[in-house]
Design a protein that fits this description.
single chain, about 525 residues, mainly alpha, three-stranded parallel β-sheet
């Protein structure tokens, strides 16, 4: 159990007070409903070539309304992906409509602006959550993949299919996206459906060679792990879902994918400037964005390359090797740099997207929308970068440098075996290891135990720093409420947390509690209620 990270159920979240993220997310859903309503008015007036777009607008309104009921769509992952997917597909379908500068198309532009405003507010929610740690550090649950897939689909509509560069970039996107989506079979299934819609609904722009490549690659992704699973190789099956049996490759692919998307955005603006000279306003805006982009990205890339070369991503991720204090301080400094980078680039991206939105309102053009979509997709990976920086921060702490305390009151062979295995586990993964011999006995008094735990929480390293993780292991008698039975009294969770708050709560350390006794689930329920 981690006493510093409360685990709230969905019902308890509904009872909690509204936070800033809840308010921003509610505003984003209002934007979604407004945009869908405008689309409903547009399509009901008979100004769309395809009548099923009317159903798309109605479907979006229903999803947004149910999202308000749930308040936090991230609790319901599939529902959140449906909402995000609807935003991406709505933007995609709307890009097909005629671009003549009349009243109805201006209305359509307003509708797109509302959808994008809602999506930007959703991105702000994800950014705040990633920095504050209110969501899981797993970026797959924080990044709106549905919108990205919808935007990726829109590339086929808004770009001239005769361009060889666009074909190559699109194929490259497909390859990298499939490699990343192998982490989740459900995401691969969604990608499969998106590909089917792209190639069968939009048959006029179908590329036979790309169709064969896509389905061949997806079939290969599905067939090989299924065959391995059928032949009993379940371990390899699980490793295969973690990207080609190489866990560290997953993180490298993210950054490679992100850099390629940056290049893709730059090339899209170059194509827009070359093929459409009337968009002369894109020139200064593009040069400003490109200059700022390179200034921000250059030290970031150097930092990542240095980090990969010096420490190795696998050791940083798994923390299987002890890291000295100087190395840990250097890595924490890198993490702070990544957070500062994410903050600056996020707001710079917002300003650039607003400028692109202004240009799309003044000069309504398909290519302007294409650059608009391209930059929108980069926003998603900015959020992934911020979330990965938090993942890096969490992996640097915890099991790298820590203390461990064992409270064992029943000395038998089984407990000795468990204790020895825990000792071996921590000795391999921690620089400093502490074990109080006085506590490995029966008939402990509460005052003595409180003194030992207080002194345990105030221990510091040889360099004068405080430990970033404190581990307690207890095995002994408990009452029906999960409290520890001592000689003269019981030791409750409140007693332990009081010692924790009085000593090291301000040092951002983690408290790990492992209870190997009866009624241990009672403490787990109490930890989930902690705010």
């Amino acid at each position: 159990m981690d006493a510093t990270v409360p685990l709230l159920s969905h019902r308890e979240k509904l009872k909690s007070r509204w936070t800033a993220i809840d308010r921003i997310q509610l505003l984003s859903e209002i934007f979604f409903i407004s945009g869908a309503t405008v689309a409903l008015v547009y399509f009901s007036g008979g100004h769309a070539e395809r009548r099923f777009l009317l159903l798309v607008a109605i479907f979006g309104i229903l999803l947004s309304l149910t999202s308000i009921v749930y308040r936090s769509v991230r609790v319901h992952l599939w529902h959140g992906m449906l909402v995000d997917g609807w935003v991406g597909f709505a933007l995609t379908f709307l890009s097909e409509v005629s671009v003549e500068a009349d009243f109805w198309n201006r209305l359509l532009t307003i509708e797109q602006s509302l959808l994008f405003g809602g999506f930007m507010m959703r991105a702000v929610c994800e950014y705040i959550a990633a920095v504050d740690g209110q969501f899981s550090a797993n970026f797959q649950h924080n990044v709106p993949w549905g919108s990205f897939l919808g935007i990726l689909l829109s590339f086929s509509f808004v770009v001239d299919s005769s361009s060889v560069l666009i074909h190559l970039l699109r194929a490259m996107l497909y390859i990298l996206l499939v490699l990343m989506l192998t982490l989740k079979v459900s995401f691969s299934l969604i990608f499969f459906l998106v590909t089917a819609i792209h190639n069968f609904v939009c048959s006029s722009q179908k590329d036979n060679w790309l169709l064969l490549f896509q389905y061949g690659l997806i079939s290969w992704i599905y067939i090989r792990p299924v065959m391995q699973f059928l032949f009993g190789r379940r371990r390899q099956f699980q490793c295969w879902l973690l990207v080609l049996n190489l866990k560290a490759l997953h993180y490298n692919l993210i950054y490679i994918f992100y850099i390629l998307l940056t290049m893709f955005y730059i090339s899209s603006h170059i194509l827009a400037a070359v093929k459409h000279p009337q968009l002369v306003l894109l020139g200064p805006v593009f040069m400003f964005i490109l200059t700022m982009w390179m200034l921000i990205h250059f030290p970031y890339w150097i930092l990542l390359l240095y980090m990969f070369r010096r420490f190795g991503m696998a050791s940083v991720q798994n923390c299987t090797q002890p890291i000295c204090e100087q190395t840990r301080a250097r890595l924490q400094l890198m993490n702070n740099g990544l957070r500062a980078y994410g903050t600056v680039v996020f707001w710079l991206s917002g300003c650039a997207v607003l400028s692109s939105l202004f240009l799309s309102l003044c000069l309504y053009s398909v290519i302007t929308l294409f650059s608009f979509y391209s930059f929108l997709s980069l926003i998603i990976f900015e959020l992934a970068t911020v979330d990965l920086s938090r993942l890096l921060s969490n992996s640097l702490g915890g099991s790298c440098i820590a203390h461990a305390l064992f409270i064992v009151q029943q000395n038998n062979d089984k407990l000795k075996t468990i204790e020895n295995r825990l000792l071996q586990f921590f000795k391999k993964r921690m620089l400093y290891f502490h074990r109080s011999e006085n506590l490995v006995r029966d008939n402990l008094k509460k005052t003595f135990l409180l003194d030992e735990i207080n002194s345990f929480f105030t221990c510091i390293t040889k360099e004068g720093l405080q430990y970033d993780s404190y581990f307690l292991y207890y095995n002994g008698p408990t009452d029906v409420q999960g409290n520890w039975q001592l000689k003269d009294d019981v030791f409750t969770l409140d007693d332990l947390l009081t010692c924790w708050r009085d000593n090291i709560l301000k040092s951002n350390s983690r408290l790990l509690i492992m209870i190997d006794a009866e009624n241990a689930e009672c403490w787990l329920k109490e930890v989930e209620k902690i705010e």
